[in-house]
């Protein structure tokens, strides 16, 4: 795993198809561990790192280079839980571990419908999950040992994932102090 000696805390990426529970997991993880929660979409909007709007999918188009520039300092310091659906464009040096959440398609469909997504956007996200697009992209962008898929269908799995990641953080801290 890539590690930067000057960091006092790890950087963790939480990725996955919209609706898999990334924000819920990342926010709770940050709360329980004292790490900083970073929602990439919010950072991009606040720092005006958007490069247009996709009408069909009803979402902003991220200017990846500007987002990287915006986050570079805080990521270099460590101690962040980054929340974004994709991760392959972020520099490998930023992360100590990458978790990709996976959700059953029926559950995912229900979650996206509850959010009010249009049918095209739901279909696009379900296909992404079926073909594990985000997991494969993460595996292609980072060393294999950095990327871990986690099931995210239920509250019990959320708790299990939180426990697993907190154990990993403790191990990281023990190895880096």
End-to-end distance, in Å?
16 Å
How many domains? The number is 1
- The secondary-structure element order is EHEHEEHEEHHHEH
Strand segment count: 7
Mean pLDDT: 95
Strand order of the largest sheet: 2-5-1-6-7
Descriptive overview:
This protein has 177 residues and is an alpha/beta fold. It has a single domain, classed as 3-Layer(aba) Sandwich (Rossmann fold), CATH 3.40.50. The protein has helices at residues 22-33, 40-46, 64-77, 105-114, 119-130, 133-141, 155-175, and strands at 12-16, 36-39, 50-54, 59-62, 80-83, 97-102, 147-151. It is globular, with a radius of gyration of 16 Å.
In terms of topology, how is this protein built?
Layout: E1 12-16, H1 22-33, E2 36-39, H2 40-46, E3 50-54, E4 59-62, H3 64-77, E5 80-83, E6 97-102, H4 105-114, H5 119-130, H6 133-141, E7 147-151, H7 155-175
Parallel strand pairs: 1-5, 1-6, 2-5, 6-7
Antiparallel strand pairs: 3-4
Give a quick precis of the structure.
GO terms for molecular function: kinase activity. With 177 residues, the chain is α/β, with parallel strands linked by helices.
């Amino acid at each position: 795993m890539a590690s930067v000696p000057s960091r006092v805390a790890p950087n963790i990426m939480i990725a996955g198809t919209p609706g898999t529970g990334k924000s819920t997991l990342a926010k709770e993880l940050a709360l329980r561990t004292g790490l900083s929660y970073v929602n990439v979409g919010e950072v991009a909007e606040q720092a005006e790192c958007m490069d247009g709007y996709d009408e069909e999918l009803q979402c902003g188009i991220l200017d990846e280079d500007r987002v990287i520039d915006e986050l570079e300092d805080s990521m270099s310091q460590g101690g962040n839980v980054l929340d974004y659906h994709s991760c392959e464009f972020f520099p490998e040096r930023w992360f100590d571990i990458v978790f990709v959440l996976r959700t059953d398609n029926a559950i995912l469909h229900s979650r996206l419908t509850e959010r009010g997504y249009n049918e095209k956007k739901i279909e696009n996200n379900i296909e992404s999950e079926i073909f594990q697009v985000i997991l494969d992209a993460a595996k292609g962008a980072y060393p294999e040992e950095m990327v871990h898929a986690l099931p995210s269908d239920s509250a019990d799995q959320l708790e299990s994932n939180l426990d697993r990641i907190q154990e990993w953080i403790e191990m990281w801290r023990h190895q880096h102090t």
